[in-house]
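Aim 2 progress update. The chain analyzed this quarter is reproduced below.
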Amino acid sequence: MSHEKIYDPYFWVGIYNLIANEIPLNFDDDYLSSKILDLLLSNKALVSDEYLKDLISYRDVLIFGPLMISKEVLTILNNVKHDYLLVAVDGTVKAFNEVGLRPDIVVTDLDGDPRYLVKSCKDRTVCVVHAHGDNVDKLMALLPKFNGPIVGTSQVPPYGRLRFYGGFTDGDRALYFITYYKPRRVIVVGMDFTTKVIGAYSKPVNTALMRYVKIKKLMWGKYLIELLSRYVGNLFRFKTLGLNLPEYVLY
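Predicted structure tokens:
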């Protein structure tokens, strides 16, 4: 599969239709959310493609998923021996904040704690904000409070100020976004698409239906990462928690 196809929005229409057979999706709401995000970005500092290439290309990238806790984030960062680009997935920004750190990039659909998203999405931290059918209220509430550079993404064919990188959950979408700019290597920690455990910083799951949807999303996230791996090969590696993380990232 070519680079062009894996990032073609119209290729993804078929995938999202398959997902919609298992998970309630409303494409009309997705379009509405995308339009609102595009409007909200009209007075924001947008990030150019060239800037993102300079930031990510040929870099070693460390992506922190929602299974991370603050102690583990600090342990990893205290043990790495060279400069990684740090990416926080959604609610993981809270773990960074708790140890007084800020990631280089945040990938979020705004399900994480809004206090820590606002604290993180400022200055030079690039915030990749995703629009989908059920986060319109969060877009309208939080985007005006973000003071840093922003990339707006959608899961419908993009227009205006929005971009499309593919993916479905915050975790796999972070991988698609980073991989688009051809880093040297990507290491993923705190992300396990085979587990039924919901991360401490993930969106709360309060009902049986929400848990069902969450598990289905994880299953699709796993599939989409496997799909991406057919293109990128051994570019990225996963490390689950509790298996001597610091040694894993010491290259």
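The mean pLDDT is 84. Residues 3-239 form a domain with the sialyltransferase cstii, chain A fold (CATH 3.90.1480). These observations will guide the mutagenesis experiments scheduled for the next reporting period.
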